[in-house]
Amino acid sequence: MTKDFAVPPVVFPTGGSSGGANVQQRRFSAIPFQQPPPQSSSQIPFLSFNMGSAAASSATTAGPFGGTIASSSSFGGGGGGSPSFEDEEPLLDELGIHPDQIWKKTRSILNPFRINQTVHKDSDLSGPIFLYLALCLFQLLAGKIQFGVILGWIVVSSIFLYVVFNMLAGRNGNLNLHTCTSLVGYCLLPVVVLSAVSLFVPQGAGPVKYVLAGVFVLWSTRACSTLVVSLADGGEEHRGLIAYACFLIYTLFSLLVIF
Amino acid sequence: MYNNMGPQPGMPMHQGIPQPGMPMHPAIPQPSPFGNPFSGPGSGLIRSGLGAYGEKIFGSSSEYVQSNISRYFSDPQYYFQVNDQYVRNKLKIVLFPFLHRGHWTRISEPVGGRLSYKPPIYDINAPDLYIPLMAFGTYVVLAGLSLGLYGKFSPEALNWLFVKGMVGWFLQVMLLKISLLSLGSGEAPLLDIVAYAGYTFTGLCLAVLGKIIWGYSYYVLIPWTCLCTGVFLVKTMKPVLFAEARSYDSSRHHYLLIFVALAQFPLLIWLGNISVNWLF
């Protein structure tokens, strides 16, 4: 004897592919949360559930596996309404990460003798985050867990460089903190290379490590001071003074690597 | 004796004056270019923050707050007007004060009715904040290096060294400030005293560098550094003390100056003793 259920059983809509005898359409009730207005396609499309049309649109794309995958994809993919999934911006663009720009900037620092300054004109922080993670990874391979230490030191040293540069440059100094952090982060690349290389230097070779560290620190310093002086006004006659500040910063990071 | 400017083509302020070496009387009173702390970088923050505070307390006029702040915390921009030559010459004076043949008084110029001192580029005796800041940073880095060479490096140890350096700087400032206060009104700007106190880190860096290169040189360099720092501080504080003193009591002045010089020895020995336990 069949019981009467309060909730009708779920029947997955199969569209026109099969007409079942006992197909009972589940009535999709009104969604309790607010639906965004259909004309705002710039809103987060993820939440714009519209069950009825979702079922209809997914039913057209569904194959013989029909309803299950279609309904789950309509739940997971969102954008069932007017802002559809294909119209969304790519994720990286939305986050502001441009991999080709990051690669260009990183490659410009790889050459220690000629640094292309125009490519660093617009600053971003995602490249420095990648380099920071790479440095932390190499330190982890060396057995040192220093995630917080390195992040804190990057922040402190970029504030230090910002203060020193703007004070030295005087009235027409216009380095801003975002650019400063971006430059300090990108010029950390030689230190990342140093930490990778020092994984392979044998344990007892002390002086070799110091000489190696010295070379990479000088590379870093040269890159950073050239970029800082060329990207912000007012620093030309204080190159040596700013270069010494950068030298201090990168020696500090190299201490983390070699000891 | 020290000509920091060198040949400068087209400097707008020197058209009527011959090359400024150590001029006794400037021929044309020059407007002090960066005397106002409320222009220049960071001034927006200062002006808006303090202005709002001042308006809240004093109604419409915020000049009262502004003038008070500039009395206690003079314009930091002044202390960063340096160039390479100034830095080199100043380091020579700080590390070898015996060899300085010129005089030790600062050159003052009348500006808008008040007497203000020339910025560091034009006057070798003016204090600056760049050298103390860099010397402090070098001290922390070198101390970390020496810790690492003994195998005891860790980031926490470096943080403790930073704290130790700050405490040492603070103690030095207190020493100078108390000797000023006990004699006169102590009207010298705070940043001046911070700058003078920070010059001790240059000699200290030399001593720590010597310790890294060859261990026994440390026992020669530390007394030398203490002596040099003592002489430098005495020679710089003498005109300041004599200018600020209300009553001319010569023996007290001299005892205080000797005390300042002698107090360098325990302070610098404590700062130079780099170990994991930061207190001693």
UniProtKB/TrEMBL annotation, chain A:
Encoding gene per record:
LOC104782044
Task: Report TM segments.
Answer: 148-168, 180-201, 207-229, 241-258
Q: Where is the Yip1 domain?
A: 108-257
Keyword entries, A-Z: Membrane, Transmembrane, Transmembrane helix
Q: How does it sit in the membrane?
A: Multi-pass membrane protein
Q: Give positions of region: Disordered.
A: 1-22
Q: What is its main location?
A: Golgi
Q: What does the UniProt entry say about where the protein is found?
A: Golgi apparatus membrane; Membrane
Q: Can you say what this protein is called?
A: Protein YIP
Q: Which domain of life is it from?
A: Eukaryota
Name the family the entry cites.
Belongs to the YIP1 family.
From TrEMBL, chain B:
Keyword Ribosomal protein, does the record have it?
A: no
Report the subcellular localization. Endoplasmic reticulum membrane; Golgi apparatus membrane
Mind listing the UniProt keywords for this protein, alphabetically?
Endoplasmic reticulum, Golgi apparatus, Membrane, Protein transport, Transmembrane, Transmembrane helix, Transport
Lineage, top-rank taxon, reads Eukaryota
From the record, give the transmembrane residue ranges. 129-151, 157-178, 190-210, 216-234, 255-276
Q: What is its main location?
A: endoplasmic reticulum
Composition bias (Pro residues) maps to: 20-34
- The annotated region (Disordered) lies at 1-34
Coiled-coil portions: none
The record's annotation in Pfam families points to: YIF1 (PF03878)
The entry's family comment says:
Belongs to the YIF1 family.
Protein name (record): Protein YIF1B isoform X1
The source organism is Camelina sativa (False flax)
What taxonomic ancestry is recorded?
Answer: Eukaryota, Viridiplantae, Streptophyta, Embryophyta, Tracheophyta
Q: Which gene encodes it?
A: LOC104699965
